[in-house]
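User: These chains co-purify. Model them together.
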Amino acid sequence: MEEVLNGLPKLGSAATAIGLFLAFLLILFFIGARFRGRLQGPVAILVFLGPALILVTMGLIVPAFRTIYGSTLDANQEEFVGFDNYAWIFDTQQGVLVNTVLWIVIAPIASTALGLTLALLLDRMRRESVAKSLIFMPMAISFVGASIIWGLMYEYRDPAKEQVGLLSQVVMWLGVDDPPNWILWQPFNNYLLMVIMVWIQVGFAMVVLSAAIKNIPTDVVEAAELDGAVGWKLFSRVTIPMIRATLIVVLTTIMIAVLKIFDIVRTMTNGNFGTQVVANEMYAQSFVQFNQGHGNALAVVLFIGVVPLIIYNVVQLRKERAIR
Amino acid sequence: MSVEAPEFVILPEPEEGKSSVTEAARRKLSSPWAVLVVVIITVLWTIPTVGLLITSLRPAADAQNTGWWTFFRNPAVTFSNYAEVITGGSNAAIGITPYFFNSFAIAIPAAIFPLVLASMAAYAIAWVPFKGSTLIFFGIFALQVVPLQMALLPLLQMFNLGWSIGDIPIFPDLNKPGSNQSLLAGTYIPLWIAHTMFALPLAIFLLHNFMAQLPRDLMEAARVDGAGHFLIFRKIVLPLSVPAIASFAIFQFLWVWNDLLVAITFAGGTPNVAPVTSYLANLKGTYGAQLHLTTAGAFIAIIVPLIVFFSLQRFFVRGLLAGSVKG
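Assistant: Joint model of the two components:
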């Protein structure tokens, strides 16, 4: 009870902050609305766009350049070392890079493929909403929570004793006498961690793709069916091309999420047993080893990894805009 | 000015009734195999969470030495795991309660701030014609994929030491004179600011997509009636965008509630400001073997997002769709 009472002022300070924030904006709006005539447009742009642009500049653009610059400095960010930090990554951290590439390729494709399958199956069903809700539910669970949930699934016990982890138990029911200690089982433990990500992301892929499939105009499908397209042909010649843009969005969105994956690896293994990825190594270098040069260089590597994704997405978006 | 006919506005929503296949074809295609596959996947997807819930309700010895599925043979239920995690006890030194309050105090403002700022920016890009608006839009779109990791160290430095270009201070140095402690240390402010900054690109992108589809006639009619941008924004665009704003608010609330990286970077692990995710990560690190405690803690941490999710699922789904399904 006492702890609950101690918590209330915290909510009070949050409410105060929101109040101040809104009051500030109201004043800004009040002043902005006074300008009329020629000044109206420029003032509106300044007031509407200004705060967001300032925050984005201070929070993302400038830090990005500082990080790039910092990646050429030493551990304490004092002396210029050129590309030494990058050389360190490519010489000593190859395992981390390989793991990250595996994550970016496997987890998004698996999530999207499974999500697409579910969306297609559910499109033909009546009572879809229960299944949809349950498959979508992990999306609301934090990566840390998911790691505890799956840690329980992967829990290892001596095969002679009673099992606590469901995976070991199922494998033993299937006739394997000595299941491995899953989390230490290199290199397959990487895939077991990816399962957690797929568990979370499939619902997202399913819901978005399912809506895209429902949005395909009925006459297109009917025309194709009149022409004799059924089953696989209908799927590959009509359905897939019609939802292509959405498929790409889903895939790249999950890829971006995967690239920044940090919580799962940190909570499950803390990067040990050959499961380290760039995002978690970056945190470890910056805040545990206090080697900011290495940390910055790893962040830049992450960034370079997504640049192709950005370019591809922008090109796609431009095409769509041109059509509209 | 009369703008009281929102029923003329076609909101971009997923249409539940419309389907790609006609009703007859739908029945023909609905094979028992498809149903079976869906049922199997649904069960597989639900089992892990059920296991967590059951384990958290079992006595310590049962939870640590037997599988949770044996619960059905030997049903013993206790709430002592929850009592211990909530208040702290012999096994877990500090309870989850202060962290639970922190999560709310972080997540609610961190959902509201970016939404308000993003809806303003989205309106400007969509409906205030100016040179370079397309460039800004694509620039913001591209910023979405700048990894959080790239901003962490510089932002932390800004909060701790301030920023200046030459002698011009951009962000003040908030260190208390003579000490090595920033005034912001131990407050929620760095977390709010950081979450707001990181959320803006996606929020602007999604809200812009929604607002750009509002009918042009409506804006022009209001303009002809003499309404300025501030009036149009408040009286027309904001009310019409409520579905999109609500969707993204839920989305952002869940994101912040579930975040670990920003939390441990800017809040440390103290019960004064750190959220439940940070507590859980510690609990798993320190008391990982105490399955009855980690599961109870995890369930407390995920119950809020689950309630939000199940009660507001419609909005949540709509938010996702507004962003990623074209037209």
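Chain B has two domains: 27-78, 95-324.
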